[in-house]
Amino acid sequence: MSTSEVLLRPMADADQAFLRALYGTTRAAEMAALGWDSAVIGHFLDQQHHAQHAHYQAQYPDACFSIIETPRERIGRAYLHWAERHLHIIDMALLPAWQGQGIGTRLLAQWLAQADRQGLSAGLHVTPQNPALRLYRRNGFDVVDDNGLYLKMHRP
Fold first, then answer.
1. What confidence tens digit (pLDDT) does each residue in 35-75 have?
2. Domain span at residue 124?
3. Rounded to an integer, what distance in angstroms lies between the CA atom of residue 126 and that of residue 132?
4. I need a labelling partner for 115 at 20 to 30 A (CA). Which of 34, 41, 107, 128 fits?
5. Which residues contact 53 (CB under 8 A, 6 or more apart)?
6. Are 124 and 112 within 8 A, CB to CB?
7. CATH number for position 129
8. Contacts for 60 with CB less than 8 Å, ≥ 6 apart
9. What DSSP state is assigned to residue 4?
């Protein structure tokens, strides 16, 4: 799939069920390891998704909250905060069926090229076990802090 076939559009209220389902896929391995009942997992993920969404909205009220989609379907989310001197990549996630196809790599390259044109640094947080860590390192991000849960990464 070419980059031109992947679009970003502003998130809408009608996307909330999709975003909740997407969030569940980002925590699937973790949930499977817990051995919880599926109803308990569902309730927990509902709460966690709501808390994360509310936090992002409150912490970054002027961020770009986007849905990643093809001409046929929604496939992910991208939350970016473009500040005067810095691009903060708040979150990027793709449905599992769309991972490993270079979509995240191409989107990240586009955002970093725009940041470079504007003279912006870039930063993000990622879990140490996230496979995207390799992508971020290849694109010039260095770990600048480790709080035990997340690595803070920065690209000058």
1. 898 899 999 999 999 999 999 999 999 999 999 999 999 99
2. 3-155
3. 8
4. 128
5. 19
6. no
7. 3.40.630.30
8. 79, 81, 88, 90
9. G
Q: Is 122 helix (H, G, I), strand (E, B) or coil?
A: strand
> Would you give the DSSP letter of residue 119?
T
Residues with Cβ within 8 Å of 66's Cβ and at least 6 positions away in sequence, in order, are 8, 9, 10, 11, 77, 78, 79, 80
Q: DSSP letters of 41-107? A: HHHHHHHHHHHHHHHHHHH-TTSEEEEEE-SS-EEEEEEEEE-SSEEEEEEEEE-GGGTTSSHHHHH
CA distances from 32 to 26, 27, 37, 131 (A): 12, 9, 10, 18
User: 17 is written with which tokens?
Assistant: 């069920």
- The total number of structural domains in the chain stands at 1
Would you say the pTM of this structure is higher than 0.85? Answer: yes
Q: Which helix (H) or strand (E) holds 115?
A: helix 103-117
Angle at 150 between CA 78 and CA 114, to 5 degrees: 35
Backbone angles phi, psi at 57, to 5 degrees: -65, -40
